[in-house]
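Quiz preparation item.
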């Protein structure tokens, strides 16, 4: 029976009319008119094919291959598939072919089993005359593993490969493990001696077996690297993209980016390439590592990370408990440490392996494969944010919180993860008995001393919330985690709607003016960083470059926007810097009656005040376009925001208008990477392209895109052409990447 996620997948892929049947082995067997089919392998390429390896009741091994109608017609026309007792069966109603093992077009060894005479010649070529064969594993078109049995007992393991993988498997067989008994290049087969014993199993074997496995892999890592080994090159971004086709709402792109950035590059050594507990056999003479098909040159942490990730997956699927997985992993690392120092980078390599395992539940036809994928993705995200696991552990945090907050009693807090940008930062809520909730801000790269000091300085300068503007109080620091009060109020974004009240937006403008007005001498020395318009352009250039790469057809338009922005930024006169938020938009404001709380000051710097003003207004434009279908839907709130600011500080409306549109152009890329915003990409490009190159003298074709205040200030269309080249760079910051 198909799960809801399976049905949703089939609905998204109408190009494969047989997908639903191939994903449901019971339905497939009914349509084929034969007994039960047991799935052993699944490979899915959206819109192209789905291949299911199955074993029938009578032991026959088959592959069910479903294609789009046009491709199915080509497959069905193969003359060789229609003849003989092992002819392919065609299920025309669902564009699916049932292909016997002996008809596999890419595995010569499989075709050698077609008749008794061919089978005997095949075994004779391998030196296994008279042997009986048992299929152990089958990946249609890629790999076939068989056990060869003689009257004397199990004697050999036969591995047959497709063209792509044979050379690598042969290199692995020659450089590691027992020497091959025979090699047939004709059949692309490697014959290996059978290794008696049982597979290392965390549910049945104690820590000693994992300790020994760790020592064995460490010895491999110490050997010289053969010149003919393939490079091991994990690609977490590609793994995340592939998973998006299966489960579009699984947001793992940010985790994949963080993992890719954190993966270690050197040193390089010989690695197993597919190391896990089921690649270790416990025999009478101790454990031995098997299956060297993926022997490669790579970082040693990749073997350890893959082994640990497989334990994580087994625990997520319920095969073992988390405690058993943890004990087995610890023993593995301890055993490794008895031979060599543990390599750096195990955590990101483990996270990369988890991302590669995301489709595992789908392939294994786990009944709730989406939940399994989400569990593995969450584990991967945790691994690339050091300290997050401990910060989420209420028992571990009880004593440190009591010490940091100077509480007499170490109570266990309830912990809620509010926000997480993998590899960068996390926001947590701690609820302690009899106390107001507090927030913890964790920074992956280490302690943030600067932001708590800034909060204290700003509150001392009057932004303590006693009047209409405040920043939360810093309450304590605990390594990479610092604590702040959780202030009351509603997020400004939730208060903005077309035709709605404008008081909250006006209050936000006054709050920003208050922040910009803090005297430099009141700020800590660590707040003296500078952010220039050149920095703004670099951020924009990177964002638009990524957008152009993602959409080559739009690249010329995007290049025009980028070039216009660069020229306009270069032409803009300098502005006296003030302390700016640098990521100011409605989500960063809480409205508590007549008070505005300013949040997330991590990027605070010295810079052009119009950067904050333009960024805020651009977010209103984007929100209006996305939520209400019009880029001017929240124009009244934008004007109220500016009027609130103008009540305390002067406005340079032309400069703000330019930076507003520059910031809006950055959303071209953000719309592609933030879930739920893809529908605005084309509209954003149209707006930005219009004022990048489409305006001529006297043209006001943008209509409501420009605030009335800009036109009242005497800015002509030709002025806007140059203005808008300037500000397309409101920083594609880590915070903006979160929700910009």
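Solution:
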């Amino acid at each position: 029976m198909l799960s809801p996620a399976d049905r949703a997948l089939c609905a998204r892929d109408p190009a494969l009319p047989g997908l639903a049947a191939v994903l449901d082995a019971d339905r497939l067997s009914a349509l084929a008119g034969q007994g039960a089919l047991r799935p052993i392998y699944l490979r899915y390429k959206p819109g192209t094919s789905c291949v299911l390896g199955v074993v029938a009741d009578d032991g026959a091994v088959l592959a069910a291959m479903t294609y789009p109608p046009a491709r199915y017609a080509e497959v069905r026309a193969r003359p060789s598939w229609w003849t003989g007792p092992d002819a392919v069966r065609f299920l025309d109603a669902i564009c699916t072919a049932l292909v016997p093992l002996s008809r596999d077009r890419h595995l010569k060894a499989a075709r050698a089993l077609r008749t008794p005479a061919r089978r005997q010649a095949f075994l004779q070529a391998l030196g296994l005359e008279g042997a009986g064969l048992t299929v152990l594993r089958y990946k249609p078109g890629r790999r076939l593993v068989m056990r060869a049995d003689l009257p004397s007992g199990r004697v050999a393991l036969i591995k047959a490969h497709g063209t792509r993988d044979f050379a690598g498997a042969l290199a692995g067989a020659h450089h590691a493990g027992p020497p091959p008994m025979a090699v047939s290049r004709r059949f692309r087969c490697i014959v290996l001696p059978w290794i008696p014993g049982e597979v290392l199993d965390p549910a049945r074997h104690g820590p000693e077996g994992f300790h020994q496995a760790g020592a064995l892999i460490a010895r491999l890592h110490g050997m010289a690297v053969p010149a003919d080994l393939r490079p091991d090159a994990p690609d977490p971004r590609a793994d995340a993209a592939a998973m998006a086709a299966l489960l579009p709402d699984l947001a793992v792109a940010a985790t994949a980016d963080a993992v890719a950035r954190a993966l270690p590059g050197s040193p390089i050594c010989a690695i197993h390439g597919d190391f896990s507990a089921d690649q270790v056999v416990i025999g009478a003479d101790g454990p031995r590592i098997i299956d060297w098909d993926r022997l490669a040159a790579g970082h040693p942490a990749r073997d350890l990370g893959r082994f640990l990730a497989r334990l994580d997956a087994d625990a997520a699927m319920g095969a073992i408990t988390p405690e058993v997985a943890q004990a087995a992993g610890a023993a593995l690392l301890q055993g490794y440490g008895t031979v060599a120092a543990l390599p750096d980078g195990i955590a990101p390599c483990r996270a990369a392996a988890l991302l590669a395992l995301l489709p595992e539940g789908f392939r294994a036809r786990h009944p709730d494969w989406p939940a399994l994928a989400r569990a593995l993705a969450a584990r991967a995200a945790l691994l690339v944010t050091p300290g997050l696991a401990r910060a989420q552990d209420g028992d571990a945090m009880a004593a440190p919180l009591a010490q940091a907050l100077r509480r007499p009693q170490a109570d266990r807090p309830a912990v809620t993860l509010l926000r997480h940008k993998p590899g960068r930062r996390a926001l947590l809520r701690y609820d302690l008995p009899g106390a107001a909730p507090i927030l913890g801000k964790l920074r992956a790269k280490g302690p943030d001393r600067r932001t708590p000091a800034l909060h204290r300085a700003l509150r001392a300068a009057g932004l303590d919330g006693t009047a209409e503007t405040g920043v939360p109080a810093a309450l304590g620091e605990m390594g990479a985690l610092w604590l702040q009060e959780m202030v009351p109020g509603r997020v400004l974004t939730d208060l903005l709607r077309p035709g709605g009240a404008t008081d909250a937006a006006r209050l936000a403008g006054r709050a920003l003016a208050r922040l910009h007005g803090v005297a430099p001498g009141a700020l800590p020395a660590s707040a003296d960083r500078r952010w220039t318009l050149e920095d703004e352009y670099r951020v924009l250039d990177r964002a638009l470059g990524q957008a152009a790469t993602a959409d080559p057809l739009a690249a010329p338009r995007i290049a025009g926007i980028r070039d216009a922005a660069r020229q306009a930024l270069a032409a803009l006169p300098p502005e006296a810097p003030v302390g700016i938020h640098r990521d100011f938009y409605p989500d960063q404001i809480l409205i508590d009656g007549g008070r505005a709380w300013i949040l997330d000051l991590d990027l605070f710097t010295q810079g052009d005040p119009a950067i904050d003003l333009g960024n805020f207004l651009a977010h209103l434009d984007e929100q209006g376009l996305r939520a209400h279908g019009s880029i001017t839907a929240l124009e009244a709130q934008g004007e109220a925001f500016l009027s609130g600011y103008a009540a305390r500080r002067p406005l340079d409306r032309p400069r703000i208008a330019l930076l507003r549109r520059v910031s809006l152009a950055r959303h071209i890329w953000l719309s592609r990477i933030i879930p739920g915003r893809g529908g605005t990409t084309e509209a954003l490009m149209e707006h930005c392209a219009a004022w990048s190159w489409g305006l001529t003298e006297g043209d006001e074709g943008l209509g409501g895109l420009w605030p009335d205040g800009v036109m009242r200030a005497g800015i002509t269309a030709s002025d806007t052409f140059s203005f808008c080249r300037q500000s397309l760079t409101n920083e594609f910051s880590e915070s903006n990447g979160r929700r910009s």
